[in-house]
Amino acid sequence: MRSVSVALAVLEAVAEQQPVGVSELSRAMQLPKSTTQRMLLTLGQLGWIRAGAEEPTRWSLTSKALSIGSRHRGDEEIRRVALPAMHTLSAATGETVHLSVPEERRVVLIEKIEGVHPVRTHTTIGNGAPLHTTASGKAILAAMPEAQARALLVAVPLEALTEHTQTDVAALQEELVRVRRDGYAVTVGTRHPEIAAVGAAVLGTSGLPVASLSLSLPAHRFPQPLWSEFGEQVARAATECSRQLGWRPA
Amino acid sequence: MRSVSVALAVLEAVAEQQPVGVSELSRAMQLPKSTTQRMLLTLGQLGWIRAGAEEPTRWSLTSKALSIGSRHRGDEEIRRVALPAMHTLSAATGETVHLSVPEERRVVLIEKIEGVHPVRTHTTIGNGAPLHTTASGKAILAAMPEAQARALLVAVPLEALTEHTQTDVAALQEELVRVRRDGYAVTVGTRHPEIAAVGAAVLGTSGLPVASLSLSLPAHRFPQPLWSEFGEQVARAATECSRQLGWRPA
DNA sequence: ACGACCGTGTCACTGTGTGGCACGGTTTGC
DNA sequence: GCAAACCGTGCCACACAGTGACACGGTCGT
Q: Does residue A130 carry a pLDDT above 90?
């Protein structure tokens, strides 16, 4: 289904580079200019992109993409109960707060509140990372039945995103034990060398993890003495979300 | 570009009915089953949808759609500054708060915080409505140069969504004068018979409206004495957002 | 045990999408 | 000031990608 594949690739490219013109796009995608233009016209007719009013040859996304995206599963309810808790965390710590959900073997960022510090981490909603490379992911792994977590970890070789990424399954499982005891996971430089994070899982009615709250901040602003302070705040917020989603302590 | 059109239609349909199977979808779209299946497979391979783990024949959106959607223009910065104000409004009134942006001749909902009342309005992020049918839209019209607002109003015949929708251009322009004086727009039953709303525009650096904050609530919970109270709260919140976006009072 | 669903796979035909190329207009660089 | 280099647009013959009727095996409900 070549044309569909190309069309969706163009859509993605437009999303990333908007507003963008035909030639620029055709170069970036290594596609003939005529093909690129036809795609843009088609996507335009279908209402997914449109040319700007003042720059009628540069294209941007319309709200159609937004409409589709916001229907992504799990969004609605989790976001609703998590947002207030996220604001509380943000106000208390001044740091960037993330809300992520598990998807396959990854955690995907579905909501964020940026911190007030001029130096802050930059992330994109919808982006994902392997479970074992983030605090969110580890919190989620720790909250699921041990067998299931193990299955996820051994399914494929664990990727190392930085030199600090733990790729040894046994070591990770030990770490998960600590996470279960503390109620929160801490990572420093496991995904990006200079970024640290603290995460805690949000549980659904069944007791299984459905999402995860985390703080993300520059590693140099997160000395070990702060770990438990932030960790407990995040864990408390996550527990409150779990309660509102119908989870009851055993 | 038939196949592209079909593929995107399938994507939309999946978004609305997820999780959904082949036959169900092919019936809903009046498409041959084999074609439908090929589309699902293709969209799956491209990473836009995936079959559930426990129901391996029913398809749902992946986070790809979320990722694209969240790149919708204007989102990032406006959402960032508006969210805190929205929470304040939500806390103060207990009602549903909406953040919308103008797009062509419509206002599109890009963010919401639901109210606490058991009876509340239900809306979908990404959905749009004609400018003249909503409080958000009128607030935005009132905040733009009069000539431009007029141009938008006379471009196409004004659609009536309910019997209370004002479709007379002259009457609407008079209403915009009132909105400019008060700083907020009020609508009752102009979009949906039982829903009322109060909206105020958010201005960018240039002084032109870039978004709009509004409260949306059942009409019976919004007697006229409350109009100015809520109106002024919304207007104050919107002004604060404008300031943070770089707008300065004349 | 039967029929009515389901999801999957095949395959010949045709009509759709391809991409090289040429055009006119505007910006760039000399 | 004038090329040259860019832009967005439009055309068209050809080839192959996409189509959809049909058949198959599995799993329900009756």
A: yes
